[in-house]
Amino acid sequence: MTPVPAPTEAQVLDDLRAVIREILQMEPDDDFAIEADASLTDELGLESIDLVNIGAGLSERYGEAVNLAVYLADQEIDDVIKLTVGALAEFVLDALAVAAASGASGASGASGASAASSAGE
Amino acid sequence: MTDVPSGAATIEPGQAETEQAESDQAGSDQAATAAAPTLEPEPEAVLRLAAASPAGIAEHLARLMADPDLLAEHLDRLAFGAVLPPKADDREGPCRLAVVDPTPKRLATARGVVKRGARWPGRGDVWFSPAPLLGPGGGTVCFLFPGLEADFRPRVADVAAWLGVRPPSADIDTLGRRARAALDVGRVLAQAVSRLGVVPDMVAGHSVGEWNAMIAGGVIAQDDLDAMLHATDLDRLQVPGVDYAVFGCPAERVRALMREHPDVVLSHENATHQTVVCGPPEPVGQLMTALRQAGVICRRLPFRSGFHTPMLEPFLAPFASGVPALPVHAARVPVWSATTGRPFPEDSDAVRALCIRHLLEPVRFRDLVLALHDAGVRAFIQVGAGQLTGLVDDTLAGRDHMTLAANAANRTGLAQLLRLQVGLWAEGRTEAPPLEPTRPKALGTTVEQLADLGRSDPLAAELSLLMTEVAGAVVAVVTAATAANTPDDPSSAGSPAYPHPESLDTVLPISTAAMPYLLDHCLAAQRPGWPDEDDRCPVVPATTMLAHMAAAAELAGPGRRAVELADVRFHRWLAASPSLAVDVAVRPLDGDRVHVALGDYAEGVVRLASESPASDMPEPWPAEPMEHRPALLAHQLYEQRWMFHGPAFQVVTRTLGVSARGIRAVLRPTSAPGSLLDGAGQVLGQWVIEHHPASWIAFPASIGRVAFHAPQPAAGTDVECAVRVTGVTTDAITADMRLAGLDGVALITVTGWHDRRFAGGPQTGAVHRFAGLNTLAEQQSGGWHLLVEPWPDIASREFHLRKYLSGPERAAYRRLTPTAQRSWLLRRVVVKDAVRVWLWDHGHGPLFPAEIEVLDDGPDGRCQVRGRNGLRLPALDVAADANREIGVALVQASDCDRTARIRVEEGRCPIAAGCSDACPVTGPGGRVHTVSWNARRRP
Questions:
Q1: Which residues of chain B have a CB within 8 Å of the CB of A70?
Q2: For residue B515, how many other CB atoms are within 10 A of its CB?
Q3: Is it the case that residue B929 has pLDDT exceeding 70?
């Protein structure tokens, strides 16, 4: 299988913005800028339960290699509160790099339209 | 006169303890509000637009965005703690937009939101609703009280200072302290939202928060819970060796894996995508690893207690003694249980059993939220610090609803409370200032047991209690009276088998302790939590007096019932506070009829019979022509305070139709004596409101005849009431009424119900309904206040003075000669109004006249004013003067360069000495007076 080129930081940020926009029920062209240094809780008003949907959105776009649950397991709650969009992007890039290095690339599905499905059934 | 206007904030913190915010508060409050001691926050600007459609809003918004001056005019500038005032164009349409601090960026976001046309729930301080969820005919509001939260970052230091209470400790080191902190923060916020006039239709809580919900709903009293918790060391109430873990997935997914770990149980089903389990650390860890690999976000929670699992059972000893002794009351506001997903039961033992179940069974918060939504709740307000809003949004995704938090971690407490109000406005909430708290009806305390015992005839219970006490005196009177009656009186038309009725003298004790329902019938609303019951003026309703008269008559003619009352007259208000005893005198007129007098308060003639004569049964009334739907829904009568009645007398449940000469409604009587007929009077009142909105205040003065055709229906039974208005004059309204069961069988017929109307313009109505926000006096362009005597007779004066004067002031008033009373009263009223307007102009919230004490000082009409019961007033320079028709007052800050001075003289006069301006005013009868005042140099 031809390896899919790893996305750039800019692409990952765009994907994250799209995921977050869905959670916030915004249209893609809405006048609402999501900066890389925006804090998920303070500026975007997300709560811990919204992380579930972010995790689902990431898995859908990038596959099982990007497991937000495992990433968050190592975070203290104060760090989770301060998470920024940029930090999430970094996590995604790291996870993809690790997956590529070990050859178990699970990248599937480009960023784009997707339903906000739950992490469950 | 005015709603609460905006202005710069100079709110002083109340009686908060000195050893507070800085020293013993760790965490977010201290870090974020370093300048906590005095509040000098900048007022925030709020833009609110209402229109018939999103297009209308878009158009209006475009105009404002193009013209900054026009935009500035449209803004409300609100100091924190101010109540969001109603907008003049609220009625323009259902569609609403609100923006806090409308910077160009936010306005641009707002424009995009409006263009999109869908609901936008407060992100980026923009709120938009095309079809509001609340408002008349809309959804209801539920308060949700959070419990223990992993992420607990309350911001309440400024809220506590605003309320004048001690800020809750944010110490969460131990489980016990965590629980306390969650409860205390919830309570402070409950007080704050109540002060802002936000009232729930029902309440619920999550985990420990359910206790706060029970307090908010009146099922348990705060003091009683505090006492129980004080006696329970929560830190020792813990199951050792168990962990909690939260999973970001539905419960079914976790359950599927739990079969392999039988000692792990589900403790919380919080939302569609949040489940919490509890169990020994190792199996919990295995569950977490398994689910995490599958991408489910998991986290261990930082507390161990075993709450909401059966594992807690052996450790329940501290609660086992506390809960059964906890006094339980009937809910004032429905309290829903997260254990059952339904409202709490009514039976007090069942309530206590549920409290125990709550500790041992899982928190089914998701099911509760779904049930609340099915029951019509559309606004869920988190009253506390936590993440319940996220849980609700997750569970109700795809359904119409709104969530709001009374507290948020990323802004100060008061700033978030402002947003709470804005969010509610955007969803169509209609304004209502704080309602008075009503005392919970205690089940099981000795005094109320009496009323409960005689539930079928509570009045007999009340009277007979006194009868036994004064038994000796009564026997003597009865013996003497019997001798005077001849048993074969020819006018006796009743059944010869019954003895002639006897004379009776007894005493009826009137107090709010013996008759707690009287607290739901108060002439003067006061600030919620107001400690002086006297000031609220609980009075015995006319129909309750009627019921007492009937009961007294029945005691005089044992074995027979009161089937009719005639020539009933209500002479004066029977106030219940301070408590008193009223002499009850029953005198026989003939074999069937007795005259009953309740002191000099009321009297009537009662006819006794073994049963109601069949010939009396009236025919049903024909339908009224041209009946239309009422302008007011039944619940709005009380919510909008057209009627001041509390729950014990909120008897009108549905208004069926209004016509030119009639009105029909469904009543549901309570256990309060006289509640059914009082409801009939309220229905008549609604007719007056809908037909004479400028002058609608009326109270019963007399009733020609009340005939009872059947035994009184039990509390909670629906009764249909039809009212036919037979006469309307400027002073009075007369009507006939017919009350029947829903099966059509007549229960009560009233002929000649005569209401006296209380004169006064729209201001008297506004003050009657919302005394904390309105004035009788009017501010003039010179800055002074004018009160032209609004009461044309003693009865009207008596009615209004109760809203303005506290208990001690009423006593002082009654000691004056009648001529002195008029001017004295005008002066008091105008000073209290002038002071309140000054405070409102400087950012204060609702203020009731009784909160201000007026001390008449030295010469030249200078007054000192003082706040009562915790109200702190700044130093003010107050001058006032009054004669029998006119009252005038001038208020300014005490640091102005000229002292305030104001005079009123009858006739056309030159400017009074020491004043700079004068103008003529007209009294109620047309007489001219001259008012002179000293205009301040500085505004």
A1: 292-293
A2: 24
A3: yes
